[in-house]
Amino acid sequence: MEFIRKYLEDSANLTDEDWHIFSSKLERKEYPKKTVILKMGQIENYLSFTEAGIIRYYIPQEEKNDHTISFTFGNSFSSAYESFITQQSSKYQVETLTKTVQWKLSYQGLQEIYAQTIVGNLIGRLAAEGLYLETSRREISFLSETPEERYLNLFKEQPKLIQYIPLKYIASYIGISPQALSRIRKRI
Amino acid sequence: MEFIRKYLEDSANLTDEDWHIFSSKLERKEYPKKTVILKMGQIENYLSFTEAGIIRYYIPQEEKNDHTISFTFGNSFSSAYESFITQQSSKYQVETLTKTVQWKLSYQGLQEIYAQTIVGNLIGRLAAEGLYLETSRREISFLSETPEERYLNLFKEQPKLIQYIPLKYIASYIGISPQALSRIRKRI
DNA sequence: CGCCGAGTTGAACTGAATCAAGAAACGTGG
DNA sequence: CCACGTTTCTTGATTCAGTTCAACTCGGCG
Questions:
Q1: A4-48 per-position pLDDT tens digit
Q2: Which residues on chain B place their C-beta less than 8 Å from a C-beta of chain A?
Q3: Which of B18, B113, B125 is nearest to A114 (CA)?
Q4: Does this model's pTM top 0.85?
Q5: Do A77 and A151 sit in the same domain of this protein?
Q6: Which portions of chain B are predicted below pLDDT 70?
Q7: Min CA distance, B121 vs chain A (Å)?
Q8: Domain of A130, in residue numbers
Q9: Were A46 and a residue from A104, A122, B55, B176 both cysteine, which residue would form a disulfide, CB within 3.0 to 4.6 Å?
């Protein structure tokens, strides 16, 4: 659990008291690979810290390729964050690609942290800002790049992703069909 | 300036002291229409509250249609927020479409607010969460909708936008050429 | 009155979707 | 450790929506 403390201390100075409050609300959970953590339509009740594992967030499509919103790896936050902060039903689904270990913080628990600590809101703000930056970059990518450019940039900036994740998911993350991605790779 | 207090009080309980600190750092500024507030490549130094006016955020393209990232109207935040929070050069440009009145809070001023008030981080967190929700919805729209669907949803959800903003900008916001948008409108 | 930018329309082109089938990789149980 | 079945990836042919280039209309403004 020490890795979470390290992670948080990158953002803010945590007192022992802060960390005590925080860590007391964390619950460990393990999932096998290919496990749905959150079904589309459910309300996300947890903000989780992934210790290890790969997770995919996606909108399922029957009869078609589904739409992948993002992936997260070990040592990072994980949540259907949109659903979590609004407490409305999630537009997408969360599923493990590999065996995954998480430390989970409930919505209720987080509200208590916001109320009981000063750093809570600071950390919450930095987390939200970080997520904003990510989606914001992706928005610009969709507006201004071709699928081929998106693939090449992914290759440059997140090689880990291309290394560990099946191509069909990468295709759906880029916003194209697996066939189209296959052809892009061919002509490179 | 009272409208800003109202706006903030939707998020948090402001003491008179809080509001005093906050408002003392605001500076009023007026821009004529078609004015570039922030050039691409510059670092955004302000988080602004727009009292009135319409603002467009876009990546300029020579010889082609540029890419519109978003629009904001009166009674809302305005900033090249990505550049603002990272203090790195902005990937896009900010320009008024109509005469605009803003109250501007500098980066330095905001850091002071974060340091001097407790509600600062709360408000900052809620603002970041709000922006995240917006880009997040847009991300899903790019992944799962056709340009035609995006236009129709815009019509349903932000009619104000279609009412006041030239079609060529709307097209670039949707991610298509003005000609394509013209044809979509025709076949509806 | 004439000009200019915004919007529309037409024609040719292009990149991705779709349908379909085959090849390669993977994992599971014997 | 091999054999089989399933999933993933590739390749081909066709179709379609959007791009690009170009010309024309309309409305507002100097």
A1: 999 899 888 899 999 999 999 999 999 999 999 999 999 999 999
A2: 59, 67-69, 81-82, 85-86, 91-92, 114, 118, 121-122, 124-125, 128-129, 131-133, 135-136, 138-140, 142-144, 175
A3: B125
A4: yes
A5: no
A6: none
A7: 6
A8: 2-144
A9: A104
